[in-house]
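A sample copied in:

***
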Amino acid sequence: MDIPILIVGGGPTGLLLAHMLTKLGVKSLIIERYPTRLAAPKAHALSPRSLELCRQFDLDVNEIRNIGTNRDDAYWVNFVTSLTGQYVGSLPYERMDAEVLEQTPTMIHNIPQPRFEEFVASCLVQDGVVEVWKNHSFVSCKQIDDRVVTVVENRGNKSLYNICSRHVVACDGAKSRVRQTLGIECEGESSYETMMTIHFNANLREVVGNQVGMLHWIMDPEVSGFIIGYDLDGNQVLICNFDSKKHPVESWDAVHCRSVLTAAIGKSIPFDVLSWRPWVLSRKVAESYYKGNVFLAGDAAHSFPPTGGLGLNSGLADVHNLAYKLAAIHQGHGGTSLHEAYQNERRHVALVNSQQSVKNGKQIFGLLKTLGTTDTNLATAKENLYRRITDPTTRSEVLKGVEHQREHFDNLGLHIGYVYGDTEIPASASLYTASYRAGARLPHAWLSKPPSSHLTSLPAISNTYVRELSGAALSEKQYSTLDLLSFDSFTLIFSSTFAAHWSALFSELRLRLAKSNARTLKINTAILGQDFNLIPGARANEWVMGMQLEHGAAVLVRPDQHILNCYGAGTKVDEVLEGLLGHLGV
């Protein structure tokens, strides 16, 4: 069989990449090792950036937001001895305040990973282009000239067959067989703690009462973990740290899981244990993201602790970056230098996110030490906990420990603030300042109406779930500057005041492109005052000033919504053409 792109792994990154490639006009095939996906929820949050890129590729974020945990239930992180025990403190879970909509059109949303996978898979079915071959496993691959021959096993009948493709993208998880076959090593630490994920079904709404939240950190040393409240009426997960010497993995059974869950809840209530799965807290980033025409993405390229919720979202951003590059190569206006560009841009982001995840984990375990719950004697550990959260001389230190977790639960800067080309480690995961330079995501501002139809045609964003917003405020939060950017085009943004210069340059640019190796490249113009206008106010003024549009500048944005270059008034067409062709490697 011959296919342009073979995707190994039918998880969220593989499914999303297949959808994106379909929209970009490139055919792909997914092979998935297992006949069915793991039912237990893993990741639980789609970051603002993940939702932005879903929207760009026609995945309805309004529909996604109707699936999963509602904002009211997910707003808080609670620190408690148990769900029915003593309350220690609370922090907001990520940025779900109305003000964050000035920085992103799509605030974070909590949705179980399996539900998101089902949503994207259903969209693939509607697309009617991509096949997903389940129970088919990657065995090996070998590049011959510019083609990759992959050996695949049909696990049903144990037969082997070959698939020939121009590219292979490995989305086959942290234990990636593709990565192992390529001989790509990982940097990072192999283990920190042994963890257990227990998936259970229980009605916790009456248990928590008004103390709802997305995460409930259980401080009791018998549990030492957190409950993810995907659905307080039913679907829950407990992730806990355990001593593998006291309780070896093979000794865990439904009875022991029930004991741990009952301790976490604080009283006996009806619940069903659905599954339990051990794993090791670790941080790994592949030393290379590609070899020849074979790429790594998602957990195959990087895996890190769940403390911060950065893993899934990093993977989705990987394929958003990679999709337009692969499409450029397949459509004849991209060169192999885009392989290296993918690695250079995405690997640093993974290093930053992995280090932040480890930092978050160390801080939360530092809090447990503050509470004295790490004592090897369970009775002593419990005594330490209850004494330190009630004794006025130690309670202030406990509250400081809770406050020090704030960055752990606010990663806005990492979600939308990364700049391709930067090599610095951000001072804070939380701090986001809009950047208007090459490599940055085009900053968000609200449009007064839908952009011109030659740019995009997207449904209005519904922010009615933010109940504190008035009807008038909601009507001003429906379309974003990100909606100016089509997934298959570069976009040149400038002001109508300087349209004479930039429109003439654009016309010449298109003529020059038609005679170049990038003749199939699509490029649009988005003209302020003609194709779009902003909702008046301080944010609009900041956006126009940051873009320098009032001074005659223009900004060229890539298909993945990141700025390629900024050009001053008087820029010549040669400079723009050189920047485009240099980026594409043709």
The longest strand covers residues 159-170. The chain has a mean pLDDT of 95. The chain has 17 helices and 24 strands. Residues 337-370 form the longest helix (34 residues).
